[in-house]
Design a protein that fits this description.
The chain is α/β, with parallel strands linked by helices. The chain has 11 helices and 18 strands.
Length: 387
């Protein structure tokens, strides 16, 4: 089906969108929220209520990629029968049509009800936040109606709202901006320090995620988050359950030079790995958590798994191309070499594993029970670290 998109020229975002949209439009505004989203978050429930009313009132919903608050609006309006106009940032060297198609596919949007506005900018992707003030101001000016929900006092959106004509701002849905914005650090459970005799496996540990899991679309992510009113649907336990349920570990590109996708493992005994699970304040999550899946080393080696090649950053360009996906910087004082990391390129499908070659690892018996509630039968051995 043909894409409906209009490439915006740099500058004058509002005028260009206004000329293209001959319909009444509304923009729902939220400041940045905490990273670990939950379907119980008040800003999310209130935003959904506002969108339901706007869609029923015949409004076309303006929104954007980047920032979970905008993206939640894109997903919710698109999946609930709304008409959408989506601002798509296109950074230096990227193709406007490709980025638009990626957005439509990732969010499961109906091209018959969606017009896309790719905005080609000279701003490099690594400095994408530099574009946000211009985007926010342009969307506010273009919208016929602006509905603020959860706005940070003294923030950029509050400043921009003060400059909007009062008659086009509907403030009746506003809630207090939540305090305690950062993710709270949770304490990992205490476990004995011992070794498993004869351990010759490679373990893939999971961690909580503040975005889609590898192999998960944004539409699936926001549907999962919004639908789980019991808590946080993207915990390390959920990540492990997703692997068991799908039968696939999808490779990621985080921390891998060149953007190549791979699945990572450690050759450490599981109890050795416990000492490497530390909190990363910048990412607001642990490096990994005590929920994992382990495979016999011999089988993984037979299908292409290799230990990473530790070295200095400048070594990468001198390597054979076939070795580059396995490169890992040694880090300051060779700190990363102790992880004993292995990788396999691409994705790993569990269906090819020989019988008896897979083990599931959880911290406590209660976690095993929770995992069974999530995925049903677990057809492999389960190792409980606390026992």
């Amino acid at each position: 089906m043909e894409l409906n998109y209009i490439i915006l020229k740099q500058g004058k975002i509002a005028e260009q969108i206004g000329r293209a949209l001959e319909m009444k439009t509304a923009l729902v505004l939220n400041s940045r929220q905490r990273k670990s989203l939950s379907g119980t978050d008040e800003w999310m429930r209130r935003t959904a209520r506002v969108l339901d009313e706007l869609i029923a009132g015949g409004y076309t919903i303006l929104s954007s990629l980047e920032m979970t608050t905008y993206e939640f609006t894109v997903w919710y309006a698109g999946s609930h029968g709304g008409r959408l106009a989506v601002f798509v940032p296109v950074y230096g060297g990227e193709d406007a049509r490709d980025e638009t198609l990626r957005c439509m596919t990732d969010f499961g949007l109906d091209p018959r009800r969606t017009v896309f506005f790719p905005y080609v900018t000279d701003v490099p992707r690594q400095r994408h936040k530099d574009l946000w003030p211009e985007r926010d101001a342009g969307l506010m000016a273009a919208a016929g109606l602006v509905v603020p929900v959860s706005i940070r006092p003294g923030g950029n959106l509050e400043t921009l709202l003060a400059g909007i004509a009062p008659e086009k701002v509907r403030r009746g849905y506003m809630i207090d901006y939540p305090e305690g914005h950062p993710v709270k650090r949770t304490k990992l459970p205490e476990m004995p320090r011992k070794m498993l005799p004869g351990w010759d496996c490679l373990t893939h540990w999971t961690s909580s995620s503040h975005g889609p899991f590898p192999g998960e679309t944004s539409a699936e992510y926001y549907e999962s988050i919004f639908g789980d009113t019991a808590g946080f649907s993207h915990s390390a336990l959920h990540a492990l359950g997703r692997i068991i349920g799908s039968g696939v570990i999808y490779g990621g590109s985080g921390g891998i030079r060149g953007g190549r996708r791979a699945v990572s493992f450690t050759a450490d005994d599981p109890y050795e790995s416990l000492g490497r699970m530390f909190w990363r304040s910048r990412r607001q999550r642990y490096t990994f958590e005590p929920y994992g899946i382990a495979f016999d080393r011999a089988w993984l080696e037979s299908i292409g798994a290799r230990p990473v090649i530790y070295g200095a950053d400048e070594d990468y360009d001198e390597m054979d191309e076939s070795d580059q996906p396995f490169f890992q910087s040694s880090g300051r004082d060779n700190r990363w070499e102790g992880e004993r990391e292995w990788r396999i390129a691409g994705d790993l499908r569990l269906s090819g594993a020989p019988p008896g070659s897979i083990r599931i690892i959880v911290p406590a018996r209660a976690d095993e029970e929770r995992l069974r509630e999530y995925v049903g039968i677990i057809p492999v051995e389960v190792i409980v670290l606390s026992e």
